[in-house]
Input
Amino acid sequence: MSIIRYEQTQGKSLGFYALIAGLGAFILAALAGVYYMEHNGHHVTGMSNRIVWGLPHVFALFLIVAASGALNIASIASVFQKKIYKPLSRLSGLVALALLAGGLMVLVLDLGRPDRLIVAMTEYNFNSIFAWNIILYNGFFAIVGVYLWMMFERRMNKYSRTVGIAAFTWRLILTTGTGSIFGFLVARQAYDAVMMAPMFVIMSFAFGLAFFILILMASYKWTERQLGDAIVNRLSNLLGVFVAAVLYFVAVYHVGNLYLAENSGVENFILVDGGIYTQLFWYGQIILGSLVPLALLYSPATRGNRTMLGLASVLIIVGGIVQLYVIIIGGQAYPMELFPGKEILEGYGGIAAYTPTLAELMLGLGGIAVSLIAVTYLIKFLPFLPESLADDVADPHHKG
Amino acid sequence: MKELNRRDFIKTTTATTAGVATIASGITLTTYAALPKESNPVTNEKRWGMLIDTNKLTESNIDDMVNACQEEHGWGDEAHSTGDQKAGWIKKVKVKDKATERISNLALMCQHCEEPPCVDVCPTNASMKREDGIVLVDRHLCIGCRYCMMACPYDARSFVHETLTDQKTHMPRGKGTVEACTMCVHKVDKGEAPACVASVASDAVIFGDLYDPTSKINQTLKKVQSTQIRADLNLNTGVRYSGI
Amino acid sequence: MSRLLIVFLSVMLSSVVAQADHHIPNLGEKATEFKDEGKEAHKRDGMSHAASLILQRKMHPELLSHKRDKTLRQGVRGGVIQLNKCVECHTSVDKNGEFIPVNAPDQFCSTCHKKVGTSLDCFSCHRTTPAEEL
Output
């Protein structure tokens, strides 16, 4: 394996500026949506007192979960000492920070009082997992920032393993914390499960890697740099393993819930007669988001084909957004069991209705656009990408 | 007269200014004591609670309770909010027992739990419990994240979905913050009963100090069967119900 | 070096001149009556009336926040500092006899807050006119 040279991208082509312009348009649309929602109040959204967290939260939590997963590649290199992933570490750190920034932006802009963000940063209730998450997210920026510095600065390279281990631990705690936002809510049948925390960790592995693969392949293709099969195939296999792991956790979560009579109501709702939520779960999350990508990644007909890998990654991302939609919105739509053994005739109950509005969708997409624009710009300003990841350069076992 | 050099000038002036400032502030502090007095902080010697007897409570009673609360606090007629977006501090709930088919009507509002999940999850300490057990939202700190609404087992809280005007003086409420039944804390602090309790003439709804052995609520709770909604969550609610 | 000194001195001078602006705010209905009767509002013992007003202007945010925390969190009520009392005195009345919201442009709060450039958050929630009974 030869010495890896890192080089900034040119960033002067028409394509580059077109990309920036396109992403910028999404961001402007998002800001317009935010102004509309904040100025008028949330009555212009589909959210209500029954569905309090809507589409923006789906996107925000998706991006935040994916962010911690995107750091995996760097962790596998530094913490688990797999040399082949070493050249990808810088990009991995960058994608992690970019996705987190995008996710947090969406989360903060959906607050009822975003002007009070300073209050959220200065008045802490340490009993609240939400407050802990705020600390974890800010700390993530700091730790990954330091981690990237260790990787960039040659004199600091010897510390990158230590910082890498710290970053790895931090992101595990962070994703556990994010899952616990739901897992700690005893009030609702869909959430009262400690399982949510590790399930979110595994989801982060899959979503983060899917984003990373797409960004890696796109940036190498569009800057006409070489990306060898050795790396791509390994990433492809890894992605397949993570998707399978997510399927396992989802299965255990639902089967476990089905055994508990007290939760059979919500399980029935998600799995069988929840209308749109059931369709999204089976067609969106399971088939489109997990089974089809697994087929694309492992079937002999499509294995090794980069377009198929790209398609699989996109489907995993879409499936991930659908999964979070079912968890967050489906979980709120199903009514709480206020009076076990009794039927509520009026006053509360029933499946709460939710129709997302355009402004909410624009905000969510704007978050993804912010992440992508950050990556696009920063790989031009700093040498994040190796000049070449061709097999003879990147593969430690390459013969010749 | 001695020649005053710069150093001495600065020393003397600083000493004089510091002296005057100390004395002046002292005067201000002592004279403040002559102004109108504020009441004392509440303590945990009392715990406010409510007992709702669904056997005695009629549907029209509950409608009166809801109307009284709306009149008192000014919620419910948000012009731009639709359906579930409108504030709902107190609701009429009709339940049917699946086994016996017996129907009960009750009023459901914030249960003022002793271990409120909403207080646990609030990131900024906006959702709080007063020493005397009343659970409130400090809307100066509320960032409108709605996590407390996710956590509340009773769907008690409402989010303000639009700009509000013409609020009641004693009940400020505004866009982007969360609100709920305050157990009419502004009335309770004056020694009065909450608006909903006052609107029901019978003793279908009793309000009082749960810790006071001479209070009607304490004595009634010792005599009649009562329960908490979702008692299995062990929240030790301040609002209790008989007859369900 | 001398250029720097000129810039510094002119900034100092203009800040002094700016303070000297004796623009009188739109005090509001009751406050104007009070003043016209010769009474000294906000006068603190041991200080002149003018000094008391300066203190009131400087410290009203802190005084209000401190009291609001005591009222909301500890149930301390009454006393001198109450936001609705400020609104009672400092709202103006329009030609129909209706109270104008105290935070409207050219009303009491805005005349200072616009000049100083700080935003006012109280009245997104608090009532902007005296209580209905008044």
The mean pLDDT of chain A is 93.
